[in-house]
UniProtKB/TrEMBL annotation:
Protein name, as recorded: Uncharacterized protein
Record flagged with keyword Amino-acid biosynthesis: no
Keywords, ordered alphabetically: Lyase, Membrane, Nucleotide-binding, Transmembrane, Transmembrane helix
Source organism (scientific name): Brugia pahangi
Keyword Signal (UniProt): no
Membrane-spanning residues: 84-107
Length: 170
């Protein structure tokens, strides 16, 4: 094979120089979005050392990527931190949100207590009178001893007896 400067094999053309070094040819394929298949967009010839563009490249976003990242390869181009107003704005926003949530919580709690206090059916603890309850029990014991009531009459007495003093709203 060293006697031949060029031979054709199945994968493609391969060139060999006088030292026996091989020069390969390469094709660059790109996925064509219209055809949904790979097409040749560039061809490199190793023997002539040249690159030929066959068709246009299909780049994501319509343009080739940048040569270097925004912050550089070692992050040396990135800014150190955010400006002061970003921290001030985010801190004041969080503070205002906390104040608003606290205000809403206490305002709703106050409204609920005001609604409960305004209800006409609610009996305050101070309105209950426990002394009369004790007096009624003593009276019923005396009456039972003296008159010998039956269980039916005692149940009737309990159902119509006064048990507490309510306010005028009741």
């Amino acid at each position: 094979m060293s006697n031949h400067s060029r031979c054709i094999i199945i994968p493609g053309n391969v060139s060999i120089d006088e030292n026996g070094d091989r020069y390969s040819d390469y094709s660059l394929l790109d996925l064509d979005p219209q055809q949904d298949k790979f097409v040749e967009v560039a061809y490199y010839s190793g023997a002539s050392n040249e690159l030929k563009q066959v068709t246009e490249f299909h780049w994501v976003g319509g343009k080739p990527p940048k040569d270097s990242p925004i912050c550089g390869w070692d992050h040396s181009k990135c800014p150190e931190g955010y400006p002061f107003y970003v921290y001030l704005l985010s801190g004041s926003t969080i503070f205002i949100l906390i104040l608003m949530s606290g205000f809403i919580y206490f305002w709703r709690r106050y409204r609920l207590e005001a609604e409960l206090a305004a209800m006409s059916w609610k009996i305050r603890w101070e309105d209950l009178d426990g002394d009369e309850l004790k007096k009624d029990k003593k009276k019923s014991r005396r009456v039972r001893r003296l008159h010998g009531f039956s269980f039916e009459s005692e149940a009737l007495l309990r159902s119509y007896s006064r048990t507490s003093n309510g306010s005028e709203n009741v």
